[in-house]
């Protein structure tokens, strides 16, 4: 384990204190999980405290843990994971926060802290249905405005809920229930076992 990672973990525990749910060093990376009610405050400290100085948000995404570890996951279902970079200290951090309510996943928006979070939060809202309190323009970014549901949720049907088509009689696009029949997809075997190997 690198001394730099241990130093970063120590700095995190010193600065964030009780806001931290857990800190983990694994595979050469530090992951800190903060409580949802202190998420925005923690983000401010991560950016502004000189011993951390995470000036840049590289990425933010939503995660659905519903079937994580083959259904053995017993924690909250939805999380927001951010990757931060401190140019001054030359270290990286994974910041994770779990939404408190699985039925209404809501966390604070960190766009006032790092404005690059704007489109990332819209993407997490669109694909996972995670709401970001305080976001100035939280609307769909990848799916159609009339789209029903959130496609990256693990309970979303593969064929979707509705489809759209052009109706020549009405001379407009109409939405209707999906007409695709469910089918079993069998993986295609490209090669037999031991193909090209010793006989």
TrEMBL record:
<protein>
    <recommendedName>
        <fullName>NADH-quinone oxidoreductase subunit C</fullName>
        <ecNumber>7.1.1.-</ecNumber>
    </recommendedName>
</protein>
<keyword id="KW-1003">Cell membrane</keyword>
<keyword id="KW-0813">Transport</keyword>
<dbReference type="Pfam" id="PF00329">
    <property type="entry name" value="Complex1_30kDa"/>
</dbReference>
<dbReference type="InterPro" id="IPR010218">
    <property type="entry name" value="NADH_DH_suC"/>
</dbReference>
<dbReference type="GO" id="GO:0005886">
    <property type="term" value="C:plasma membrane"/>
</dbReference>
<comment type="subunit">
    <text>NDH-1 is composed of 14 different subunits. Subunits NuoB, C, D, E, F, and G constitute the peripheral sector of the complex.</text>
</comment>
<comment type="function">
    <text>NDH-1 shuttles electrons from NADH, via FMN and iron-sulfur (Fe-S) centers, to quinones in the respiratory chain. The immediate electron acceptor for the enzyme in this species is believed to be ubiquinone. Couples the redox reaction to proton translocation (for every two electrons transferred, four hydrogen ions are translocated across the cytoplasmic membrane), and thus conserves the redox energy in a proton gradient.</text>
</comment>
<keyword id="KW-0520">NAD</keyword>
<dbReference type="InterPro" id="IPR037232">
    <property type="entry name" value="NADH_quin_OxRdtase_su_C/D-like"/>
</dbReference>
<dbReference type="GO" id="GO:0008137">
    <property type="term" value="F:NADH dehydrogenase (ubiquinone) activity"/>
</dbReference>
<keyword id="KW-0472">Membrane</keyword>
<comment type="similarity">
    <text>Belongs to the complex I 30 kDa subunit family.</text>
</comment>
<keyword id="KW-1278">Translocase</keyword>
<keyword id="KW-0874">Quinone</keyword>
<dbReference type="InterPro" id="IPR001268">
    <property type="entry name" value="NADH_UbQ_OxRdtase_30kDa_su"/>
</dbReference>
<keyword id="KW-0830">Ubiquinone</keyword>
<dbReference type="GO" id="GO:0048038">
    <property type="term" value="F:quinone binding"/>
</dbReference>
<dbReference type="InterPro" id="IPR020396">
    <property type="entry name" value="NADH_UbQ_OxRdtase_CS"/>
</dbReference>
<feature type="domain" description="NADH:ubiquinone oxidoreductase 30kDa subunit">
    <location>
        <begin position="32"/>
        <end position="161"/>
    </location>
</feature>
<dbReference type="GO" id="GO:0050136">
    <property type="term" value="F:NADH dehydrogenase (quinone) (non-electrogenic) activity"/>
</dbReference>
